[in-house]
Amino acid sequence: KAGVTQTPRYLIKTRGQQVTLSCSPISGHRSVSWYQQTPGQGLQFLFEYFSETQRNKGNFPGRFSGRQFSNSRSEMNVSTLELGDSALYLCASSFQERDTQYFGPGTRLTVL
Amino acid sequence: GQQLNQSPQSMFIQEGEDVSMNCTSSSIFNTWLWYKQEPGEGPVLLIALYKAGELTSNGRLTAQFGITRKDSFLNISASIPSDVGIYFCAGLAVDSGYSTLTFGKGTMLLVSP
After folding, report:
1. Average pLDDT value for residue range B51-64
2. What is the C-alpha separation between A6 and A3, in angstroms, rounded?
3. Peptide bond into B43 cis (omega under 30)
4. Separation between Cα atoms, residue A64 and residue A52, nearest integer Å
5. Residues of A in contact with B40 (CB under 8 A)
6. Percentage with pLDDT > 90 across chain B
7. Which residue from A10, A73, B20, B55 has the highest number of Cβ atoms inside 10 Å of its Cβ?
């Protein structure tokens, strides 16, 4: 069974731009969560989607948003990028909410 | 919010040695997970623990879900160079119907051949 896939793997943007990251969960998994990983803050929860509905949200500004499609694929969007948004963005999927999460390889975002 | 205290922050050991790391929290968790992350990759699930007191092994790895539900440890026996990476503990709590996965800061493991 294929794992969680994320595209693109690497991205370079400039301040003020916006970016969309994509995540395809493991086949059959309906829950997708997003995390931001930085050296200083570690892994921080962004949001969780289940059946196309946002079920939980972390403590991030409104510039961070996401959505989930009917096939469980998910996208996250960051608008008006700031230097501090440079991070590894990780997507994790689980069969349903409150299940063990499996991570993708991440998208490395660099904001210049 | 919930916080996990993971220790040690880093370890530098010789091949063949055993390793122990742990996580503690002031909050109760329903599930404890241990992940390993290598450079440029996402965390890979090593062991999942679902019941207080549960002791689970995965090859040379052994992890336990603390009886108080506020702590967990991971042991690696007879370490080898490919054990190098960052190990994260994570606790899954269910609050008001929503689940939140909280991560420790990680333990960086370096193994000298």
Report:
1. 96
2. 10
3. no
4. 17
5. 105, 108
6. 80
7. A73
Residues B29, B23: contact at Cβ < 8 Å?
A: no
Per-residue confidence at B18, pLDDT binned at 50, 70, 90? very high
Tokens of A107: 């998208």
List the beta bridge partners of residue B97: none
Q: Over A43-61, what HEC string results?
A: EEEEEEEECCEEEEECCCC
Q: pLDDT of B62-112, one tens digit each?
A: 999 999 999 999 999 999 999 999 999 999 887 655 667 889 999 999 999
Structure-token match 């007879």, residue found: B78
Residue A103 to residue B43, Cβ atoms within 8 A: yes
**pLDDT higher than 80, residue A98:** no
Contact A82, A70 (CB under 8 A): no
Nearest CB to B101 within list A4, A45, A104: A45
Report strand pairing: A19-24 vs A74-78: antiparallel
Q: Which residue has the tokens 């450079």?
A: B39
Q: How many residues does chain B have?
A: 113
